[in-house]
Amino acid sequence: MKTQVGIVGGGPSGLLLSQLLHRRGIDSVVLEKHTRAHVLARIRAGVLEQGFADLLRLAGCGDRMDHQGEVHEGVNIAHGEDLHRVDLHGLTGGRTVMVYGQTELTRDLYEARDAMGGVVIHEAEDVQPHDLTSDTPYLTYRQGDEVRRVACDFVVGADGFHGVSRKSIPADVLTEYEKVYPFGWLGVLSRTEPVAPELIYARHQRGFALCSLRSRVLSRYYIQVPLTDRPGDWSDEAFWAELKRRLPGHVAARLQTGPSIEKSIAPLRSFVAEPMRYGRLFLAGDAAHIVPPTGAKGLNSAGSDIQYLYHALLDHYERGDDSGLYSYSQKALARIWKAQRFSWWMTSMLHVFPDSPAYDRRLQETELNYLFSSEAGLRSLAENYVGLPY
Ligand code: APR
Ligand code: PHB
């Protein structure tokens, strides 16, 4: 098989890039390790920056998001019994975020790929990039007993944190930066009315909690738990009781509880791999970087990579201009590190760190007290939350 852009990974990054390119007549093939059902079974975050939402519209995939997603003009931060609203809209000159689940968005991307006749090969096993530093790179993969080959101009590694693309960059070229947090998030999805119309991030001495939502009838809640906990350790009753303890009394009193539809624990980690380009291989999304979910920057960071890469590839194919391809890694990383900083800051401010000295805990409280006494502080939070410019 021959194509222009060979994309490894059929998650949101790979699908979005392939869809954007196809609309400009650039051909790609997506190789995805799992079945579509498996990819669509993952429950992930659901807050989109305005820039990301615009990119989806540009890809022709914004209709359902615009009908079913919710535009949010603010988020809340709870601290003990206090609840503060951050007026995102007012503090950023009218910018907002879109609440729309990643699972839905991925489904929309798959449907758009189908409608255009895009090539997405599922259950592609042993995907391997080759000859990345030559002008004729190619991918191989296995389906059953047959090994197939995709020749391409460029390879895009959009195969997530555990993918093969990053691993194909020689160790002496790649630098990896990592920070692992000593706790995880236990998440519950429930068919209940959200406790509040806007998200609530809560800092409590028992640990962090987050009230989020997917729709008017579907809620997503999280609590900070030790890394040693397993989802089976937490009955629904125990989860609701602990969540209530961490919310201000007047919020907890309104919480609607019900059976969990999904319950899982995710560890918190920050990770960046540099550079994001090696020869004709370009990394994008989770393949190159991950963040703890506290700032809702995972998918949005992937979105900024795709935006830069899309324009770089367009410039190459439409104008013979390779400057965007040369500067991709540097440009993408500059924004990625800012999202890393914001996610680390939100995580540090809002979680309880086991064994942290009393001095650090007082500083955390002071950080929140400062934030809610300073418009400059709030504006900084707001401009990062809605997304820095591309
Ligand atoms: N070969 C082919 N496909 C692979 C391989 C491989 N060796 N390894 C992983 N994949 C596939 C995975 O099955 C998955 O569908 O690559 C896809 C990567 O998707 P994601 O992990 O969702 O990563 P990405 O598309 O970059 O999405 C951005 O940011 O913080 C997150 O939650 C956010 O998942 C979102 C991500
Ligand atoms: C979610 O809805 O799953 C969600 C929202 C905001 C976050 C993290 C997760 O910061």
What layout of secondary structure does this protein have?
Blueprint: E1 5-8, H1 12-22, E2 28-31, H2 36-40, E3 47-49, H3 50-58, H4 63-68, E4 70-72, E5 75-79, E6 82-86, H5 88-91, E7 97-99, H6 102-116, E8 119-121, E9 125-130, E10 138-143, E11 146-151, E12 154-157, E13 175-190, E14 200-203, E15 209-215, E16 218-225, H7 236-246, H8 249-252, E17 260-274, E18 277-278, E19 281-283, E20 289-290, H9 298-319, H10 323-350, H11 358-371, H12 375-386
Structural commentary:
This protein has 390 residues and is of the alpha+beta class. The chain folds into 2 domains: 5-72 and 96-178 and 269-347, FAD/NAD(P)-binding domain; 181-267 and 354-386, D-Amino Acid Oxidase, subunit A, domain 2 (D-Amino Acid Oxidase, Chain A, domain 2), CATH 3.30.9.10. 36% of the residues lie in helices and 28% in strands. The protein has helices at residues 12-22, 36-40, 50-58, 63-68, 88-91, 102-116, 236-246, 249-252, 298-319, 323-350, 358-371, 375-386; strands at 5-8, 28-31, 47-49, 70-72, 75-79, 82-86, 97-99, 119-121, 125-130, 138-143, 146-151, 154-157, 175-190, 200-203, 209-215, 218-225, 260-274, 277-278, 281-283, 289-290. Strands 6-5-14-15-16-13-17-20 form an 8-stranded mixed sheet, sandwiched between helices. Helix 9 runs antiparallel to helix 10. The protein starts with a strand and ends with a helix. The mean pLDDT is 97. The site of adenosine-5-diphosphoribose has 29 residues, from helix 1 and helix 9. Adenosine-5-diphosphoribose (APR) binds at residues 8-14, 31-34, 39, 44-45, 102, 124, 127, 158-160, 162-164, 285-286, 290, 298-299, 302.
